[in-house]
């Protein structure tokens, strides 16, 4: 009986981790399935926006994919291209790991810009439009090229990210255009709270 208890206690963290990664995988699959008629999923040779310090974090699971439109359309530079977005989903083992990752990420945020928790800024040099959803133990980041930015489609992407990767308690950070503004649009942390401050 003691052996069984020890075995269960030893396997419990892996079961919880598997459950978290399974939920994350289900959300990603549902997100991709919802868009499969208009977009093709690409997983090889991906670049996208530089995510700063978040790329160096140890995570339980990490997924990066690109959704590329099946049809070409004209971008802001007058070129006929297939519009695309990059999605990165980082799942952490627990809330403490996520909080430490956020603490390290915000000073070295997208394209190595510095962001303070809960503080909006008018411009973020060199940063493309993005939607960041922090929910539970997961950070989900959607980025799109500045040359393909359109406010209406950006709002649709934001809504999709909230639908599939967010909840009522999710924290949402948006770069609402080319080089800003950066806004904490949902459940912004109190700027005085030390949890995500370096």
In short:
The model is unreliable at 5-20 (pLDDT under 50). The chain contains 3 helices and 9 strands, in the order H-E-E-E-E-E-H-E-E-H-E-E.
Task: Walk me through what this model shows.
By secondary structure, the protein is of the alpha+beta class. It has one domain (2-186). The chain is 30% helix and 24% strand. The chain is built from three helices and nine strands; from the N terminus they run H-E-E-E-E-E-H-E-E-H-E-E. The protein has a seven-stranded antiparallel beta sheet, with helices on one face. It has a two-stranded antiparallel sheet with strand order 3-4. The longest helix is centred in the first third of the chain and has 33 residues, at 2-34. The chain is globular. The chain starts with a helix and ends in a 12-residue tail after the last strand.
Topology:
Layout: H1 2-34, E1 39-42, E2 61-69, E3 73-74, E4 80-81, E5 84-91, H2 95-105, E6 130-135, E7 138-144, H3 151-165, E8 171-175, E9 182-186
Antiparallel strand pairs: 1-2, 2-5, 3-4, 5-7, 6-7, 6-8, 8-9
Task: Provide the descriptors you would attach to this structure in a database record.
globular; seven-stranded antiparallel beta sheet; single chain; 198 residues; two-stranded antiparallel ribbon; alpha+beta
